[in-house]
């Protein structure tokens, strides 16, 4: 079977006919679009409110405070100084007509996965979905900001009316300092370099590190035509540093150099030149490089000219500095042994590399690679990398570890829900910039007169309409216009009449019949089903088969959790448990009835009462709004990086995002990825093209981002036993009926919304024997 080539850079590239076909098709589509949409209609479409969520890929979890920020901006906008939420942008907020929040108590993320096929309406209405943390005791208050301070500071009392003790020894100054120092010593920067300042030679990459990170090194088989920089002098702590950055385009031979910038230690640019590639250009990659066809038309400088000039400019003891510099040196086709790589210098846990743009903001307080500027500026990037290296050398590892850039990134992607936690943070965001704080911000420093969300609503003559069932827990607030009902059905009827006319509505269904007693069994059964869907059986093989070669073949479909020999069969069969659902489906589609290890084999999935409807489930997952414009690609021999994937796939038409998943279980870098496109048609064309090139395997995606991490837990579960007590309320079939009823209610409420209305559907979470299940959320703008 075809596998990816030994080196990632050897994967095949597009041919001229593919590029020409894309250009012709693009012109044809643009021409047809211009004929169909006149100027007035286009202007109307441009001003339609819409969402642009930048959800965190690892598990797509959104905090309650982030929901609050979204609702506040949606209702108030810039007119009341409400900030645009960082995790989800609302375009043309002024054109939003209504806001509706639908809350379904006792439902969780688990229920959506278990009854995925029963949620037919909600799956077709909402493309944007996210995970929520387990429900707090003041869920609704945290969403709209009502009495949140009082609720969070209310003391828990025992039956004797005495305050419950909650002494935490970590609050004691000595213990707290000791714990903080222990955490400091475990920081990856401290573990690698120690605490004290050291000279630049300590931060040079070793020969082993150069090889491991794919740098061109003498003796490698793939660099026979590379040129040595000639820098063979002894490097000391006083050797000069030079920042280097290159921009590339895509040619018939792969990535080739189109621009180079070299910056001296004093920040002066000593070289900034355009380069004409030797081979025909297929894609200028303007989005990343900033290079256009017109820019290169008058250029006569070739790669060999640049190589000679670099050799002339660099002294014999020069140290090159760059961010993932191996890509630049390979584009230059040069060998240089003395390197400081800021992507590795500032690496986080498990060697995680941070983007240069983020490090420049977090460490230097500098904004580079602005969104409004097309392409990267190599001088700007080279100087940023150089300054980052100089900062590290001058300040030392201890100071860099104190910055805790990993925590800064987590705060940006997943801001803390509590104000106290944000005050304790060493990072402050303002107007999109990151400012590092030398001191902790105290409550006294915050504006005391800033009105809350509900106060701002009240000042503008608006209130939140709260429709719910009468309950002992009801806490009537003057900030709400309460509509209390006697049943969920009455809640539905009243809400259908109110949400079209109410600016902001919160509709809560109690759904008491969905009992939490069954959740433990339900969770185990769902995860067991996914585990079986990710398991395939292959065979028969010869008795002297090679397990290693079989594993290599099946690994081309995706990450394998375990591989074992089936002992119950006469002829040898292999059981392969995958970590992702797409990998199992690829194995069934691509390796069934093929020759593996000298045997014609069959690849089969497990069939039992739990997996009878799996084919239908797979087809529904493929056509889900979250997945239909996403494809899964595997078959890479080496661990992937974002930089490589951008170079490898940026030429694909209408590509929107490249998603590189993390494996929490194995802690190993992924060798598969997901590619997101502007439309499902573009995704299908890209998948066909990747398959036609050979070497890689590809199919439609099945696991959305919020499901990806959760599903990895499934492969570790033992087989689930059916409950002996069939009278456990509610029975599964009864629960399915309740879920269908919930889905019907959401559909009916959605139909009552006016166009251009923001709607959020929230499953707050549910109880189980060993804690709480996380919640789940859906959002969308009707008519957007």
TrEMBL record:
- Keyword Hydrolase recorded: yes
Query: Which GO terms of the molecular function aspect are on file?
Result: exonuclease activity; RNA binding
One Pfam family here:
RRM_1
In the UniProt record, the signal sequence range is none
Domain RRM span(s) in chain numbering: 535-604, 630-699
Q: Mark out the compositionally biased spans (Basic and acidic residues).
A: 7-22
Q: Is Mitochondrion there in the keyword field?
A: no
Q: Which GO terms describe its cellular component?
A: nucleus
Residue span(s) of domain Exonuclease:
240-398
**What is the protein's given name?**
RNA exonuclease 5 isoform X1
Q: Which organism is it from?
A: Pelobates cultripes (Western spadefoot toad)
């Amino acid at each position: 079977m075809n596998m990816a080539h030994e080196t990632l850079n050897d994967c095949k590239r597009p041919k001229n006919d593919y590029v020409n076909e894309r250009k012709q098709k693009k012109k044809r589509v643009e021409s047809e679009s211009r004929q169909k949409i006149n100027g007035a209609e286009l202007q109307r479409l441009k001003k339609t409110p819409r969402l642009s969520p930048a959800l965190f890929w690892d598990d797509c979890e959104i905090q309650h405070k982030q929901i609050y920020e979204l609702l506040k901006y949606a209702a108030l906008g810039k007119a009341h100084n409400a900030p645009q939420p960082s995790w989800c942008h609302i375009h043309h907020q002024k054109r939003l007509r209504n806001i509706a929040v639908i809350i379904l108590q006792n439902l969780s993320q688990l229920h959506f996965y278990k009854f995925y096929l029963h949620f037919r309406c909600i799956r077709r209405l909402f493309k944007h979905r996210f995970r929520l943390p387990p429900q707090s005791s003041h869920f609704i208050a945290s969403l709209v900001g009502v009495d949140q301070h009082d609720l969070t500071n209310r003391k828990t009392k025992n039956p004797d009316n005495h305050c419950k003790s909650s002494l935490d020894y970590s609050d004691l100054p000595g213990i707290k300092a000791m714990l903080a120092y222990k955490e400091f010593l475990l920081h990856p920067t401290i573990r690698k370099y120690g605490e004290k300042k050291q000279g630049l030679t300590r931060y040079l990459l070793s020969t082993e590190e150069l090889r491991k990170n794919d740098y061109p090194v003498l003796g490698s088989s793939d660099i026979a035509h590379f040129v040595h920089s000639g820098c063979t002098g002894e490097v000391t702590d006083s050797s000069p540093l030079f920042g280097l950055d290159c921009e590339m385009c895509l040619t018939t031979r792969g990535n080739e150099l189109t621009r180079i910038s070299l910056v001296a230690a004093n920040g002066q640019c000593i070289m900034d030149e355009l380069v004409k590639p030797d081979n025909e250009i297929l894609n200028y990659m303007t989005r990343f490089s900033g290079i256009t066809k017109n820019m290169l038309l008058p250029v006569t400088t070739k790669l060999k000219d640049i190589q000679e000039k670099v050799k002339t400019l660099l002294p014999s003891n020069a140290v090159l500095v760059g961010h993932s510099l191996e890509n630049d040196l390979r584009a230059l086709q040069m060998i240089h042994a003395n390197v400081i790589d800021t992507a590795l210098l500032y690496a986080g846990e498990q060697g995680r590399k941070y983007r240069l743009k983020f490090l420049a903001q977090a460490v230097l307080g500098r904004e580079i690679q602005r969104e409004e500027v097309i392409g990267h500026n190599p001088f700007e990037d080279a100087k940023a990398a150089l300054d980052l290296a100089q900062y590290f050398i001058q300040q030392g590892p201890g100071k860099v570890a104190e910055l805790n850039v990993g925590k800064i990134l987590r705060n940006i992607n997943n801001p803390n829900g509590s104000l106290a936690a944000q005050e304790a943070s060493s990072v402050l965001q303002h107007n999109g910039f990151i400012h590092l704080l030398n001191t902790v911000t105290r409550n006294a420093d915050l504006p005391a007169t800033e009105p809350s969300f509900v106060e701002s609503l009240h000042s503008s003559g608006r209130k939140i309409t709260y429709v719910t069932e009468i309950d002992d827990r009801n806490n009537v607030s003057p900030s709400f216009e309460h509509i209390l009902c006697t049943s969920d059905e009455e809640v539905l009827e009243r809400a259908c009449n109110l949400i079209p006319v109410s600016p902001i509505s919160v509709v809560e269904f109690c759904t008491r019949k969905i009992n939490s007693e069954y959740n433990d069994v339900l969770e185990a059964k769902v995860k067991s089903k996914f585990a079986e869907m990710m398991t395939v059986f292959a065979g028969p093989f010869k008795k002297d088969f090679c397990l290693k070669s079989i594993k290599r073949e099946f690994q081309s479909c995706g990450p394998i959790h375990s591989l074992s020999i089936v002992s119950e069969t006469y002829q040898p069969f292999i059981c392969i448990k995958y970590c992702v659902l797409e990998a199992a489906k690829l194995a069934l589609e691509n390796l069934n009835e093929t020759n593996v290890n000298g045997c014609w084999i069959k690849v089969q999935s497990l069939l039992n009462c739990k997996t009878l409807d799996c084919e239908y489930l797979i087809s529904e997952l493929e056509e889900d709004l979250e997945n239909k414009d996403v494809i899964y690609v595997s078959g890479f021999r080496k661990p992937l990086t974002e930089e490589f994937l951008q170079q490898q796939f940026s030429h694909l038409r209408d590509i929107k995002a490249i998603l590189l998943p993390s494996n929490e279980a194995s802690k190993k870098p992924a060798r598969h990825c997901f590619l997101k496109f502007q439309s499902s048609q573009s995704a299908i064309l890209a998948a066909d093209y990747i398959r036609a090139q050979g070497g890689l395997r590809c199919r439609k995606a099945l696991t959305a981002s919020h499901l990806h991490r959760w599903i990895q837990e499934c492969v570790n579960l033992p087989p689930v036993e059916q409950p002996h007590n069939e009278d456990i309320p509610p029975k599964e079939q009864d629960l399915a009926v309740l879920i269908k009823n919930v889905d019907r209610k959401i559909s009916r409420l959605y139909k009552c919304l006016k166009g251009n209305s923001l709607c959020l559907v929230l499953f707050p979470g549910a109880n189980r024997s060993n804690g709480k299940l996380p919640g789940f959320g859906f959002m969308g703008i009707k008519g957007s």
